[in-house]
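re: the backbone from monday

yeah here it is again, tokenized this time
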């Protein structure tokens, strides 16, 4: 039996990964992308951002003919049995989610539905506030198509939980699938789509599915902020936070994961989604005090490494500091909300000479900090530096040896903002090693 044809609207991070993985499952997939530049790049198997394995997988699916970059979006929409909306949801100044692209895409889907025979399911994968599918997307499609939901079409929310840097693997082997459909027929179509998936599947209503996505990201961000707060205290009272994690992790109610201490969380998801759900909370007269606290804590946490530098070097004015790692996490060139930016700013404000390095994200960081200075290699960044701050745990930095660090650096202070090294590795060397959550 041939697999249902799919149209994915939006060739960004989530849309592209979704399209590739559905094509790998044997669906004929058309990817609709509004930007002509991005469209021609994708058609030539060029991915406009760095994500391990994605360009190779795209090239394979294009070559096999399972995935096409649609040149005629109306036709792609009209001929598909399932449409995924993966369009951008920018933030407003108050944290609210701008639904312009979602509404526009829903209108396009509706217009294509006008003359379409047969049944179509419209699936929202973009992260949108609870109620958006029912209150915004469904009415927009109904208006544009002139058809109420039911016989001709149905809708579902199907949030995405993939992580940057591991996007393909997460999408191929999700730990759960969450679907909130508007009616039984749409739900049946989604159950059939995911029939082969091995992971738990949670079917509920659209509002619940939308709320699940925000709750997951809020919980994870609050967990990181909590870990960092306790790690800061552990350090002050002479304890290693990882020894604490070893003691709390076996409790299944706590678990050992996502408790890595560091300079805080960045990326396009946690900061934005927390601000969005904070806004929903304010509108619903239910302020989210823990989410507020996590966001506040995340602004202060990057400065912890600056304090450590002051403890080690005293005055920072005129000191040469290597800032290693600009991406918000390894294996991506994404610098959105990277903690490297507040660290860079704080060091510059204190008069330090900051030399930045990243294996992948120097160009993207330059857009945030045009006056930043860059070194071509990690060796060049470290040569003659008084101190180094490790902001992203790239494999290239983990592979540095104490001997290299000691021989290249001037004062050899290493402040590890991501806990990449074992303290013992520096015993007997001239490197002064400090790390978040590592008591002395
Ligand atoms: C996050 C979620 O983990 C995904 O499940 C979700 O699908 C995604 O947001 C999204 O909403 O699209 P992502 O932002 O790609 O994924 O990256 P994470 O691996 O979660 O890391 C986010 C930040 O938290 C990074 O800056 C990372 O360094 C930091 N982090 C993570 C810590 O500081 N400590 C940890 O223990 C884990």
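seq for it, each position gets an aa:
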């Amino acid at each position: 039996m041939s697999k249902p044809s799919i149209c994915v609207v939006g060739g960004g991070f989530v849309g592209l990964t979704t399209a590739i993985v559905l094509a790998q499952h044997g669906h004929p997939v058309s990817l609709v992308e509004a930007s002509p530049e991005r469209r021609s790049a994708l058609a030539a198997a060029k991915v406009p951002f760095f994500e391990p394995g994605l360009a190779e997988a795209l090239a394979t699916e294009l070559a096999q003919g399972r995935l096409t970059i649609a040149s005629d979006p109306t036709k792609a929409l009209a001929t598909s049995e399932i449409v995924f909306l993966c369009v951008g949801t920018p933030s407003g100044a108050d944290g609210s989610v701008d639904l312009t692209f979602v509404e526009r895409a829903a209108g396009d889907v509706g217009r294509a539905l006008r003359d379409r025979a047969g049944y179509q399911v419209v699936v929202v994968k973009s992260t949108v506030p609870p109620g958006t599918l029912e209150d915004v997307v469904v009415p927009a499609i109904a208006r544009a198509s002139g058809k109420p939901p039911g016989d001709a079409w149905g809708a579902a929310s199907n949030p995405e939980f993939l992580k940057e840097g591991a996007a393909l693997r997460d999408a191929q082997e999700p730990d759960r699938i969450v679907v909130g459909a508007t009616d039984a027929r749409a739900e049946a179509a989604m159950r059939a789509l995911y029939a082969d998936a091995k992971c738990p599947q949670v079917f509920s209503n659209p509002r619940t599915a939308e709320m699940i996505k925000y709750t997951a990201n809020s919980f994870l961000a609050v967990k990181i902020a909590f870990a960092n707060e306790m790690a800061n205290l552990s350090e002050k009272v002479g304890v290693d936070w990882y020894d604490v994690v070893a003691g709390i992790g076996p409790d299944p109610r706590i678990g050992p994961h996502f408790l890595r201490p560091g300079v805080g969380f960045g990326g396009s998801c946690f900061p934005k989604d927390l601000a969005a759900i904070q806004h929903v909370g304010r509108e619903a007269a239910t302020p989210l005090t823990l989410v507020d606290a996590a966001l506040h804590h995340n602004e202060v946490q990057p400065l912890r490494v600056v304090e450590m530098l002051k403890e080690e070097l005293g005055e920072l004015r005129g000191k040469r500091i290597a800032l290693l790692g600009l991406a918000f996490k390894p294996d991506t060139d994404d610098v959105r909300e990277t903690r490297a930016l507040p660290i860079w700013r704080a060091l510059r404000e204190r008069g330090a000479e900051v030399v930045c390095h990243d294996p992948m994200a120097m160009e993207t960081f330059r857009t945030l900090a045009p006056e930043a200075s860059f070194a071509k290699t990690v060796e060049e960044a470290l040569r003659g530096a008084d101190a180094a701050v490790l902001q992203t745990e790239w494999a290239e930095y983990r592979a540095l040896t104490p001997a290299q660090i000691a021989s290249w650096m001037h004062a050899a202070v290493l402040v590890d903002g991501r806990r990449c090294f074992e303290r013992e590795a520096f015993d007997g060397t001239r490197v002064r090693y400090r790390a978040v959550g590592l008591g002395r």
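Residues 78 and 112 are 5 Å apart (CA to CA). The first strand starts at residue 6 and ends at 9.
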